[in-house]
Amino acid sequence: MKKSKNKNYAAIFCFVLLCLLASACIPVQSDDVGSDSSGVLDSDPTNTVVPRKEVITPETLPMITSAPQQTVLAPTAIPQVSPAPTQILTPTLEANMLTGPLLGFRMYDDEGSLLSILDMNTYSFRELRGDFGNPFGMLWFGNGCQLYTFNGLIDLQGRTTWHLPEVDWEIILPIESSISRVGKVSPDQQWYAYDIWYGEQGYADPEFKDIGIINLEDTENPILLTDNGRATSFAWSPDSQWLAYKNDDENGMPQLFITKPDGTMVTQLTSHTEPFGLGYMIWSPDGRYIAYSARLSKDGGETGTGWVDIVNVEDRSLKQIKPEIQNFGGVRMNALWWNLDSARLLFSGRDWNDAPDETQIYWVDVYTGKIEKTFFASDVPDGYIEQVFAAGDIDHILFGSYQAFYLLDAVDISYELTPIQLDVKGDIYEVESSPFSFPGEENCQY
What we know:
- By secondary structure, the chain is mainly beta.
- The protein has a domain at 133-425: Methylamine Dehydrogenase, Chain H, CATH 2.130.10.
- Helices cover 6% and strands 38% of the residues.
- The chain has two helices and 28 strands.
- Strand 1 (102-109) and strand 2 (112-119) form a beta hairpin.
- The radius of gyration is 36 Å and the shape is globular.
């Protein structure tokens, strides 16, 4: 009985030994499948890899790699992006929406033309490069969500929103050797007004200037609005129903006129009796008034004076805003702005010699025609103001003084230093404040 039991134990022992030998002969799975040295678990649950500790810093980003045979099902197909640890992700322009108010610079440098947009809320710049030359004589279109270019309009990220229709310049410039320097599209984008320069002096200093209008749906039949060579400066009304312009009357006196876009209903609004220079003009937001800059030279141009006229379009009444300071030489660089309520006006200029230490800023009550407030270069520590820009309304003014920019609050006539720095390596052709109605880029509609 004992011998039988011993035989059974021997048989069991041999069987166990054979099993152990057989298991030792099974090949081991390669580390290349399902595991790596980064500490990610293998797809075989019986093979456990001890995780390697790693310190994560802003400069050290771990790479996450999914197991090759593992499939994750999601309700929608969302691709997983695993950038390399050294890849830098740059935010798109859409991630930094402009809030405004804005200040636009049309520039040209060694690389070509560009637009630089300063957001005066964040003091950050956005640069747009392309064929952004200026044939229109102005920078912003509409409420400030679009900008003018050679070919039409672009949005604040440089994408074309509207193309200017093809025009035959030989047709719309009927006078031999004439050129057009400034053109403006009506707010409804149906009409295009342009100047016509001609004479022996050509582009530099033409002896003659006229104005033409094109219906953009019929570009082969332009309207020659004037033909006496004395017309300058023009502006569309906010509703596109009228074009205001300067022309001489039959006595050779400069006057303000308005006309329908098709050249009909020409109306003379002023009755000036002496010659003077009528310059930049701008309609009030409600379309009731037109303000324009004026200047009169004396002593053969050695001295002179400047002022601003406000004309009521309905009753043709005129208010002349003439600073009491005798050395005001007129509005400088189109520095003339209406407040959105059309009740107040802001303008800035210098003395007759255009000296920065004689810069003057004025706030006007339109209804009374009186100057409410003033601010002069002599009111700042260094006594020098180079540029003046309205920032969102006429009560906030950005002005440059030597190498610094300040923000002026007209409510209490206080100002503070801003971090704005203009390190310009090219030529600035135009600088213009965005319209006060700018809604913020995220609210722009095209």
